[in-house]
Fold this sequence. Notes:
CATH topology: Thiol Ester Dehydrase, Chain A
CATH architecture: Roll
Protein name: Thioesterase domain-containing protein
InterPro entries: HotDog_dom_sf, PAAI_dom, Thioestr_dom
Distance between the termini: 19 Å
Keywords: Hydrolase
Radius of gyration: 15 Å
Strand content: 35-45%
Oligomer: single chain
Organism: Sphingomonas psychrolutea
Structural class: alpha+beta
Domain Thioesterase: 55-129
Amino acid sequence: xxxxxxxAAAHFRALESLYAAAPINRxxxxxxxxxxxxxxxxHFTLDERYFHAAGAAHGTSYFKMLxxxxxxAANSLVTDRFLLTTAFNLLLTKPLRAGPVTAEGRWxxxxxxxxxxxxxxxxxxxxxxxxxxxxxxxxxxPLAGLPGYRAS
Length: 152
């Protein structure tokens, strides 16, 4: 973890840039915000492109946003390596319809090799629609070598 506030903020902005640069995020109208170490929020908008046949968001949208929010909450604590998701458990509690949704991720434990983080999806009414818990481990991939990882 970065020791100086300026160093931490630069790492958070670089992770936000990395998120924006990921090719998968061209498919989702979303932005990442890391306000502090161990916390990440993804703001996104759902529309019918993400719906299953019954007119609500498909589970892929739930998983992607929960996984990303938990992942970035955990990776905010690691300044040298990209983390990898090793497991993720989901609980879907409410159908998501068109509109804004926020995924809130929070680091829970671990600071060496394995990290645990949780996330929840909050709909436009302020209701929780899903939650998940993931485990993430350090990879051999240096963050500094990834396209998009740069402070803005």
